[in-house]
Amino acid sequence: MSTEPKECCLGSVGFIGLGIMGQPMAENLLKAGYKVCVWNRTESKCECLVEMGADMLRSPGDVAAHGPKVLFVCVTGTEDVKEILFSEKGIAKSAKQGLIVVDHSTIDAKEAADFADCLAGAGVKYLDAPVSGGDVGAKAGTLSIMVGGDEKAYETVRPMLEVLGQKVNYMGKSGMGQVTKSCNQVMVACNLMGVCEAMMLAKKNGLSLEKMIEAVSGGAAGSWSLSNLGVKIKDGDWSPGFMVKDLLKDLGFVSHLSQVSHAPLTGTNMVETLFQVLAAEGEGELGTQALAKVYEKLGGFEF
Amino acid sequence: MSTEPKECCLGSVGFIGLGIMGQPMAENLLKAGYKVCVWNRTESKCECLVEMGADMLRSPGDVAAHGPKVLFVCVTGTEDVKEILFSEKGIAKSAKQGLIVVDHSTIDAKEAADFADCLAGAGVKYLDAPVSGGDVGAKAGTLSIMVGGDEKAYETVRPMLEVLGQKVNYMGKSGMGQVTKSCNQVMVACNLMGVCEAMMLAKKNGLSLEKMIEAVSGGAAGSWSLSNLGVKIKDGDWSPGFMVKDLLKDLGFVSHLSQVSHAPLTGTNMVETLFQVLAAEGEGELGTQALAKVYEKLGGFEF
């Protein structure tokens, strides 16, 4: 296949990391009219995109050398990002002046800010741009995207981000996208704890879970968690929209951020502990609503 | 003023307890075309309703003797309800067979079920029907009303409840209205804790609170608490929609219910403790969003 840059109406971009999130995001960029060159650690995951017209390259450095103005990254952990950026075959070594790296991975906020500093030396702008909305949002192009970093670079990539997400927000300097994601996960965790405890109280006292959800969802007790995960708990459906192990990963970043900034998160720490119980019992790949299973154990009952 | 029952298009009802909630609720029944006779411990609070055409009576028993088919109660505590129902000048002594008492007070669920049992002996149906939505909802007639007790009695009073509230739900046998309210307050408390912790994390890390709220409200972190109380916390507005001391009262019922039903509410117990800190410092009459002030102390900062 060709590795020559091609002319395209909307320009050429790179995409690194074609997992459950990255694959549909890269697809959406292709469909929108961007020329996309891709790299993924497991090569076979590139096939589908290549069939749609993407170019597959041999390393993150090759993608950068290919000359895109914007390079998207969407991988799992801080170490993965570090390797993609700074290893021997990484982006920094072969990037051209002016490249903008948009990192959709959820990683440590302080490290994200460090990456931006390091890349600035090579004339590369790095935006931390974690997303929320899951694989469903990635496919539908309805993600929330929270962006930190250079504001001019943000304005440049905004039309592309609006292909990937419905709510695209500039949050401030480097790291602020990740801080926002941490704030998001604090509420995701605490709200879910409230839902589990309310549902336990209902179940233990003979109140219909269905009626309870219906009666209170629209008022002061209402939340996304109640409307979406409450129903799954009621049905004993533990299948993952978002996995326990992934929320635990994110709560690790929350925990680190809370330590370095002296922000004692009493409730979030407690929920994190309860999620650790689930993971310790080998249930890390269930959906986060499986937090209800910890309450089943605590209360000696079943939903 | 007349104490004679009058003919009226929609029938005659009694209303006992004209506080911040009861006053506008009784007004709405009057405006809807019901003939209303009222009693309140502090007589002066009846004046406004009397001017609108209500009859003021001398005791709860007098209201019951006046012959309404339905008698609403809206007072503060379990003991207040007990006195109104069962004291020398209470409802039970003079109620006519078939009277339906609709109790909008938030009280202990087990006591509510006991009240229903005791009144059944006198041929009186008692519905526990706590509300959510505050004085704003009471005025606008947009309360959520959660009803437990005899279903036929519920069907009889439903048209009246639909004057008072927008979401009227039958929850099951006696006490289930109160259990629902407790479930509601569990989530109200836990969601608010999540909001406070997320906002502390944002503030401590230099993230704009306004931008954070805007970026995450519509997604998986979204809640009524974030959209309504998050904004007040950002502005340092501690004025009460719903007071700390009132939520603490309700959390007392939650706590009792959790004890008798062996439902260990780890998160809710923690938030209750934090609210107790506020009350101990004399801040029980602030709005519940003042929970954020406890986090200010824990984290040594100010919103």
Automatic annotation (TrEMBL), chains A, B:
Belongs to the HIBADH-related family. InterPro entries: 3-OH-isobutyrate_DH-rel_CS, 6-PGluconate_DH-like_C_sf, 6PGD_dom2, 6PGDH_NADP-bd, HIBADH-like_NADP-bd, HIBADH-related, NAD(P)-bd_dom_sf. Pfam families: NAD_binding_11, NAD_binding_2. Residues 175-295 form the 3-hydroxyisobutyrate dehydrogenase-like NAD-binding domain. The keyword NAD applies. This is 2-hydroxy-3-oxopropionate reductase. The active site is at K181. Residues 13-172 form the 6-phosphogluconate dehydrogenase NADP-binding domain. Its EC number is 1.1.1.60. GO terms for molecular function: 2-hydroxy-3-oxopropionate reductase activity; NAD binding; NADP binding. Keywords: NAD, Oxidoreductase. GO terms for biological process: organic acid catabolic process.
